[in-house]
Amino acid sequence: MSANDTLLQKTTEESLPEDLFAAIEKLKREREAVILAHYYQDADIQDLADTIGDSLVLARAAQKSSAKVIVFCGVHFMAETAKILSPDKKVILPDVNAGCSLAQGCPKEEFVKFKAEHKGHVVVSYINTTAAIKALSDYVCTSGNAKAVIEAIPKEQPIIFGPDKNLGRYLSEQTGRKMVLWPGTCVVHETFNERRVLELLEQNPGAELIAHPECEEPVLRHAHYIGSTKAMLDYTQKSPVQTFIVATEIGILHQMRKASPSKNFIVAAPATLTEASCGCSTCEYMKLNTLEKLYLCLRDMRPEIELAPELIAAAQKPIKRMVAIG
Ligand code: 13P
Ligand code: SF4
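# iron/sulfur cluster complex -> structure
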């Protein structure tokens, strides 16, 4: 049991406020805090957020915010990025254990060796990395701007891309650039499979498959649209299509349904039991954040992201290069 869970258990015994929504809103005002939430958070958290977005939108929101405190409802690397971009602000997140298979699968020591094996390469890191990996990178990118970042690098320059090999392969195909790929994957997006998406497309004539580029190639091959979480949401709003088969984390469906209430959204997860019980397209890391933990973190102002100033300075450089590209 994590420290957060122990605290939650203790507090639950003491009893939490009856109206958690009101209590969170009140604490937020008192603390002069802003709540940033990723699309993969539970619907209740999304509804309480000041800004909901993908990792790029949230990084920009963190940078621009004038609030004293940023409550980051997302995973650890996202909260870390907010701290790197706003070092003077207090950045807290509901559950410090909200990790990411990509960030955790790319340890610093091994990445240093990987870099040494590919001397002369420019390092482009997906934002789903720890601050230590960002500090070892030349550029950071998100799924929303990765193509633009790669295209901004001179053609003759060899590139290392990490840690998501699926996104790397997709980018290589899109840009025609050869890249050395770190062999990481997202545990959520790698579960989608070709057989299931073909089955769903056949069962739903006229439906379109929309997919996040962290999915594997046999799934992306059949996608009518591939994009970041925000790009997928925008696409479903603009498109005249009525039914979408969605190959990304289930949390985004909340905003898709809100934005287009008359359209149908089908989860592309391999074994759809019910949306609530099927873990197949659920990011367990994201879902560690709960309304109760959000309340506690605002009440106690922890867990807090703390990074050494030298690490912040080193990790800022590749992020600022990304921001400059647009
Ligand atoms: P986005 O950049 O689309 O928010 O993706 C982040 C992520 O963790 C996808 O799994
Ligand atoms: Fe990481 Fe995948 Fe979860 Fe995104 S969905 S936070 S990439 S584990």
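# post-check
The first strand starts at residue 33 and ends at 38.
The chain has a mean pLDDT of 93.
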